[in-house]
Design a protein that fits this description.
Blueprint (H helix, E strand, L loop, with lengths): L1 H21 L14 H10 L13 H8 L1 H7 L10 H11 L4 H16 L6 E10 L2 E13 L3 H67 L5 H34 L24 H23 L3 E8 L4 E7 L7 H66 L5 H36 L9
Antiparallel strand pairs: 1-2, 2-3, 3-4
Helix pairs in contact: 5-7, 6-7, 7-8, 7-9, 7-11, 9-10, 10-11
């Protein structure tokens, strides 16, 4: 027994020593650049020379990054947000607080891919048997696949495609979070601007209400006009309160998802985005999923066919031989193989459908942005005209040619024109953010 144990141990050491020589010890990976506050903290706790996730960094990452067109495309994406702008400040604060659960799945997929990349090597394991009450035999079982109809290759392709899908999911998750933060910021900015307009309108209408009440007290004007004016004042106060509440709610929610308070950030950033800036992330994900499903189909097909492997034991009474194995064939095997081939076709059709859906969304947003921008420009012109009419009526009122209620009516038109201009301006901004989210350009790919 002692001789067989020593012989088995020697073979094990030789095999694992060879595996060590074949291993790539280079460091640095795509995943290792995906920093989070927790990751930075863990790196700091580990010591000054330890990078975040160093325990999972291997040279296989560099090989995978260099060969994957999907990951290269994601890394090459450039953010559409100008550096230092209000949008950039909001996005940076929001993404810094991201829990990045999708990153964990990407790390796991990367490790699975690294494991699958070595599936062509022989498998080794111990075999311990009790031959009698006083004799224990220890052997080393070695198994090497000779022919498997492409199963091992399909497993490697599936694992790589799984990494690519996880990378796209991480990019989608990051862009979705950035878009949510910007939507909250724009909601707060619109509420703040609307509240400012209501304050000015309330001030002017309160002045008219005072004049009207004095005229009613003097018997010059009718009380019904004063009642109408007071009702309008109540509506303006309600609108002002609602705008303030919307601003506070959006700011509170935005601060809850960021690493620092953002209530003092101001400004509306101009985004120059075209539908050709990048491939929509939905299409990129569909293509990666297609590659993964085709690889899975290869594995399924290989599982239906026989294969051959070389196996044996090293130790006492060493034996070697070629085994032919595989799934049992039946009357339904042919239909099963056809179903596997159809699965490949279905994956390709899903890419076509995703491309069509994304193109529809892009064309819709493109048209809506153009229409809303045009309407905002028209609203700005209408605001100027309404201001000119208001100034004319005020001059005529001071000259005794107009009544107070006439000036109030024109001021209402002016206030509505201002509100429409603000609403359209922020609607166009939201549409541009949505377009950038679909294209996946709300954050730099190399920083994701």
């Amino acid at each position: 027994m002692g001789h067989s144990f020593v012989q088995a141990a020697a073979v094990s050491a030789a095999i694992f020593g060879l595996s060590g020589c074949l291993a790539d010890t280079k460091t640095g990976s795509f995943v290792s650049r995906l920093k989070t506050p927790d990751a930075a903290l863990s790196a700091q706790d580990a010591g000054p020379k330890t990078t975040a996730y160093a325990s999972t960094d291997t040279g296989y990452d560099n090989k995978l990054n260099a060969e994957s067109t999907v990951i290269n495309g994601l890394v090459a994406r450039q953010s559409a947000l100008p550096n230092g702008s209000a949008y950039d400040q909001v996005t940076s604060a929001v993404l810094a607080a991201n829990s990045r659960s999708a990153e964990s799945e990407l790390r796991a997929a990367r490790l699975r891919a690294e494991s699958a990349s070595k599936n062509w090597l022989p498998t080794v394991g111990p075999s311990i048997s009790l031959t009698s009450l006083s004799d224990v035999v220890v052997n080393l079982v070695v198994d090497q696949v000779l022919f498997d109809n492409g199963r091992k290759k399909g497993e490697r392709e599936f694992a790589i495609a799984d990494v690519e899908v996880a990378a796209v999911v991480l990019a989608e998750d990051t862009n979705d979070r950035a878009a949510t933060g910007l939507e909250l910021y724009l909601a707060a900015a619109e509420g703040r601007e609307q509240a400012a307009l209501d304050e000015k309108t309330l001030e002017a209408m309160s002045h008219f209400e005072y004049i009207m009440s004095e005229r009613v007290r003097g018997g010059v004007s009718d009380r019904s006009d004063l009642n109408i004016l007071r009702q309008q004042l109540a509506e303006i106060r309600a609108s002002h309160a609602a705008a303030q509440e919307a601003t506070r709610s959006a700011i509170a929610e935005l601060n809850a998802m960021s690493v620092q308070p953002l209530q003092n950030v101001r400004g509306l950033t101009s985004l120059n985005i075209s539908t050709d800036s990048a491939q929509p992330l939905a299409v990129t994900r569909a293509e990666a999923e297609k590659t993964r499903e085709v690889a899975a189909a290869k594995v399924d097909r290989a599982s239906q066919l026989p294969g051959a492997s070389l196996s044996g034991t090293v130790g006492e009474n060493s034996t070697f031989g070629v085994n032919v194995n595989g799934a049992q064939w039946g009357l339904g095997t042919g239909a099963q193989l056809k179903a596997i081939e159809i699965a490949k076709e279905s994956a390709g059709r899903r890419v076509i459908q995703a491309t069509e859906d994304s193109n529809r969304d892009l064309r819709r947003l493109e048209s809506q942005i153009a229409a809303t921008s045009r309407q905002a420009a028209e609203a700005a012109e209408l605001t100027v005209q309404a201001r000119n009419n208001l100034e004319l009526f005020e001059a005529q009122y001071k000259g005794g040619q107009r009544q107070v209620i006439d000036v109030v009516s024109v001021y209402e038109t002016f206030a509505r024109a201002q509100e429409a201009e603000v609403a359209l301006k922020y609607e166009a901004a939201l549409l541009r953010v949505e377009l950038a989210r679909i294209l996946g350009i709300l954050a730099d790919g190399d920083l994701i």
